[in-house]
Design a protein that fits this description.
Elements (H helix, E strand, L loop, with lengths): L12 E2 L3 E9 L3 E8 L5 E7 L1 H4 L2 H14 L10 E7 L2 E7 L3 E3 H6 L6 H20 L12 E4 L4 E3 L5 H14 L23 H16 L10 H9 L7 H8 L10 H11 L18 H4 L12 H4 L11 H19 L8 E3 L8 H10 L3 E7 L9 E5 L5 E3 L3 E7 L5 E2 L8 H10 L3 E8 L9 E6 L2 E3 L4 E2 L4 E7 L5 E2 L8 H10 L3 E2 L4 E4 L8 E4 L6 E2 L4 E2 L1 E6 L3 E2 L8 H10 L3 E6 L7 E3 L5 E2 L4 E5 L4
Parallel strand pairs: 11-14, 16-20, 22-26, 23-27, 29-32
Antiparallel strand pairs: 1-2, 2-3, 3-4, 4-6, 5-6, 7-8, 8-9, 10-13, 12-14, 15-19, 17-18, 17-20, 21-25, 24-27, 28-31, 30-32
Length: about 625
Amino acid sequence: MPLDESDELTGRVLDDRYRLIAYQSHAQASANYLGHDLETGDQVSIKIFGASISEDLEFARHLVADTTKAASVSHSCVEQVRDWGRFQESAYVVVEHCPGVTLRSFLAAGHRLNTAQVVKLGVELASGLEALHSNEICHGDISPGNVILGLDTSSKLSAVYLGNALGAAEAGRLEIVGTGVDDRSREFLAPETSRGLSSAESDVYSLAMTLWVAAEELPATTEATDAAVRSKISNWPDFGEAKDILKSALDPNPDVRCDAKCLMEGLTDAAASFVKPAPIAIPTSLVDPLASGNQSQQRVPTAPTDFNQVRWRPVWKVGAAALGLLTLLSAATAWAVSSVRPQGVSTHLVDQYTGRTIGEVRAIADSVAWILDEDQVRTDELPNGIVITQRPEAGSRLAEGAMLIVEVASGPRLRMTPLVLGLSTEAASARLATKGFEVDLVQPLYDETIAAGEVIKLMIDGETELGGSLREPGTRAVLVVSGGPVPRTVPQLIGLDQESAEEALNALQLSSARTLSYEVSESVPEGLVLRQNLTPGLLVERGSTVSLTLSAGPDRREVPDMRGLTVAEAEQRLVEVGLKLGDIAGEGELVQATEPPAGTMLTPDSAVLLWVLSD
């Protein structure tokens, strides 16, 4: 999805559920939309990422992991993550819609918060940050751009799921092509984030930097860090007891920096030195009328009890009666306006249309001049073309030219592709079957690092599927699983010396048996491989052991020194060493010499001449 054409998606429905109502803005890697959840009727905010970054493996892995964890966090000061998926070639994330403006927009318009408002904002955001850290989630990009000032006086941390995913994608792309996609506000990042992804400590630093900027007369710059920031805080007399905890939060050493809970408690204690501040006044010029139009329909979370227990310096409260009277007058005026019915327009009774076919309802709408708005919704309970819900309800009266809204069954619910990478073949097949997929084929692929049987990737319709996309029930999938390391071909080792044979085996990640055997050979020189137990050319698993038999050289027997022995004793000695008695020269009794002489090496059974000359 080209980001410069992202506004053209307005009106589209994502995965049969989220209608894009209005294009709002875009960043370097994503576009933001106001949406309508057709299933719940709520307004939502939808962030759609560009196709290029959506296909980035590291980005996708972090986005899926962080979005899944963030969806489990429910806190009034944390933007609620509701859903995620894929649209065409792009990933998207759905969050609750919070009518209001970002702190960055508020500050860019020249507005600032007083110190009491900053303390109150800090207590709320630190409470939300503590909830994230308790769920082992690091925000990674706390800055004014990711703080929402609500029209209902609430404040929230937004984009909880995004900072680390963008950081991971940025690191990979800089190594490859040298172009960045990281939208994070660098001037708010802790010094240690240059060495890797974010941590709980770096989040506390970024939050303190954001609070500092909210009270400064001028926006922060990249120079407003570390010593400069701490120096400015030390000169803030109006911050009273909050100064010390802010100094701790901005300590350049993450090991001594306070955590989110301590920051919240420190700011809560400091609130006692301030008069409770007035709600932050958001100029109407900064508010998007469309995005805030249904504010009354949004569920406003109840603030945690701890917020209500924050003790402020007591002040007299006035104007409550006047405010109540004004509220009553406003309500009466709204009722009077809404009760006015245009004259001269015919109205017709709305019947019960749920359970009927859409063809029937179209005919009825045409007959009474209603405008029929059909929202296609997938469901497993009803067949295609059956009306599921209607607005207005049966029994109402609807004027000609007014709109009748119906939701129509458009087929079974799509199934979200599960994450199966790294699972065993059996576990991955079971997970796919549970989600309504069918495993069409298990395709082995040799891999030197991934264990045999472990899933390497999932293929659907010939394309790699990372998980998270919606598919029709019964979609057939192909599991590509590791077949383990590539089989090794046993090399020819006969004729090599022991060292050369072991080097050849090591080069193929094979090994030789620790115990070597030796055999006599008339043809193979001593020390060379005479025989191997595995036939050359045989395919074996990596790490297999090959047993080697080395040549001991030809079989030779040494002629012993037999001088002074009798003939009988000499014959016995020759037999013991594998030789035999030859001729006897002389008529003496004792051996004087041998032919060949002692020490000569002879083949087995060779004859030795004895000299037994008389004295």
